[in-house]
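We both want to read discrete structure tokens more fluently, so let's practise on a single case. Would you write everything just below, so we can both look at the same thing?
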Amino acid sequence: MRPLTGPETTPVSGISGEAFVCLPGSLTSGVILLCDHARNTLPEGYGTLGLPAAELQRHIAYDIGAAGVTERLAAILGAPAVLTRFSRLLIDCNRGEDDPTLIMRLSDGAVVPGNRTLTAEEREGRIARFYRPYHRAVGELIDLAMAQGVIPVLFSVHSFTPTWRGSPRRWHAAVLWDKDPRLAQPLLAALSADPALVVGDNEPYTGTLKGDCMWQHGTSRGLAHALIEVRQDLIATEAGQAEWAERLGHAMQSVLATPSDDTDLRTVQFFGSHTD
């Protein structure tokens, strides 16, 4: 993906590939948005992976509401965004290539027939066709920003279920991060300033997964980054997606406008990883 050729140009045009969609934005925004589980669709020839169609409407297939939030947030920030085109059941772009959950055979009680007898050849084919192009697009967008003198902040948008195994989840949203606090901590503070919100700090999930998208493009490259999880019932509708995009947009604008001398978002810094 090379939407631009000259370092003097900062807007990124919406160039996409089979495996990903790139929304237009300006690199001078200083932010690149990512959505690893944007859609529940499957490419031609894969059918429903043998699942009843209703299963593809569940969280096992995609992060409900995350794409809508990402699209609106990109417009608010004027930032480019890269989103996956296909279901996480085909391949999970938020995992490392050697992760055993890269292609799920069983997900939240649902057996995935199309993945049960996956051959090494089919696994490698999916990685080459759907996984690597997405990560290559993200990497090349980062390279393009840095070539223009912009060290970008990475912000990944996800969503989580309101209940898990019958237990309600109290959080409205959560910020996931590993060892780099530069974006995560100010973002937590900005969101938690609203007394009506319960904001998780690395809960109900943790951001310390080696090989995941933020590890590949943030931790390994020394770029400030964070992953936001929003509860799915809050963003299942367009109105909810617009509300949360505005909330996250205000929070991000506040964080980006308030630089700290000892945690500069605009520098390359290596903090390591809890999984090292």
About this structure: The first strand starts at residue 11 and ends at 12. The first helix runs from residue 66 to 77.
